[in-house]
Amino acid sequence: MKAARGSLADMRVVLLCALLTLSSSSHTCPKECSCNMNTKAVDCRGRGLYDIPRRLNQDTQELYLQDNRIRGLGTMAFRDIPHLRVLDLSNNSITSISPTSFLGLRTLLRLNLAHNSLKDLDKRWFGHIRSLSHLDLSHNSLWGLPIAMGDSLKNLSHMDLASNRITRLDRSMLEAMARLDSVTLRNNPWRCDCQLIGLKLWLETYSFKGGAVDEVICSHPEEMKDRDLQKVPYQLFHACMATSYHYLFANIHHLESERLLRGHIHGNHAHPSGHTLHVPLSMGEGLGEGRGSLPECEPKQRQRPVNLRHAIATVIITGVVCGIVCLMMLAAAVYGCAYAAIMAKYQRELKKNEELAAAKAADHASADEKEPLENAIA
């Protein structure tokens, strides 16, 4: 009996130690960082770190890792802190990020990757971060953004792409970010050729709806250098019009969209990107997920079936209206010719009748003159 009681007491002691160990581990703070349990923030700035610290409190909501020497992010690098809301990785040496590095961060709101050495983005990075509202990718070496990235960032409100190597952006990707309030695009070597017309249309529409955007200064071609894309007249893109009918469709839809906006802008104070505008056949202005260059006036296109049907319907309706007008003009011409022919015939008959009447009158007069003469002779 005493032995059983002693073993039971030993089990209680072991259980108590285990609970104390778990409790202490849940409130640990990495020795190279400082932690604030009230704000649930972990500050590891400027500690010369080469990797993400371990033994982080699972309730951590803010993690500051800027000004370190981190070169890459591995698979599920933040799996121990699933409630993270703010992640700052700026001013490191990050060149590679695993497609699943951010897996599990479903509540992340702010992500700062500025001042690193990223060259390419993987659309899978943000596939599970649907709540992201602020994204800073400035001061990297990015060549472009994946088109599908916009579908994962529908709640994004602020995006900074300044000081990269971006030459083109796909309009459909930007339109997918329906809640975008501000975007920073300065200090990029923009190539203002036919493939950037879509971006120009998006910038004008976005600014018209109240979105905040800085200048997009052209670097190429030479005749466009140092000019703001938004201020470049469409006449300079005539070469595109001569080689691609997509430009015409884009402009028609753009003008129609602006007309609809002007009709509703006073009644609905909508979000700057609340009503997405699409081009029936978009100009394929982005680099997509690679760096391959395309001919300047043969833009890559992304199909927009719904809006294409709208464009075709518009063309058909216009053709029908023009046909009706032509038929009405033809009917008017036929009626005019018939009326003129009838009037001419009437005038001829009238003149002929007048001539006959005049001849009969003359005969009666001569007959009246001869009758007295005959009577006198008789």
Question: How would you describe this structure to a colleague?
Answer:
The protein has seven helices and 15 strands. It has helices at 2-25, 149-152, 171-176, 197-208, 238-243, 246-264, 305-377; strands at residues 34-36, 41-43, 62-64, 72-73, 86-88, 96-97, 110-112, 134-136, 158-160, 182-184, 190-191, 212-213, 218-220, 281-282, 302-303. The chain has a nine-stranded mixed beta sheet with strand order 1-2-3-5-7-8-9-10-12, covered by helices on one side. It has a two-stranded parallel ribbon with strand order 4-6. The chain has a two-stranded parallel sheet with strand order 11-13. The longest helix has 73 residues, at 305-377. The radius of gyration is 40 Å and the shape is rod-shaped. Residues 16-26 and 273-301 have low confidence and may be disordered.
Write a concise synopsis of the structure shown.
The chain is of the alpha/beta class.
Main sheet summary: 9 strands, mixed
Strand order of the largest sheet: 1-2-3-5-7-8-9-10-12
Mean pLDDT: 79
Our count of helices gives 7
| Helix residue percentage | 25-40%
List keywords for this structure.
single chain, two-stranded parallel sheet, about 375 residues, nine-stranded mixed β-sheet, alpha/beta, about 40% helix, rod-shaped
Topology:
Blueprint: H1 2-25, E1 34-36, E2 41-43, E3 62-64, E4 72-73, E5 86-88, E6 96-97, E7 110-112, E8 134-136, H2 149-152, E9 158-160, H3 171-176, E10 182-184, E11 190-191, H4 197-208, E12 212-213, E13 218-220, H5 238-243, H6 246-264, E14 281-282, E15 302-303, H7 305-377
Parallel strand pairs: 2-3, 3-5, 4-6, 5-7, 7-8, 8-9, 9-10, 10-12, 11-13
Antiparallel strand pairs: 1-2, 14-15
Helix pairs in contact: 4-6
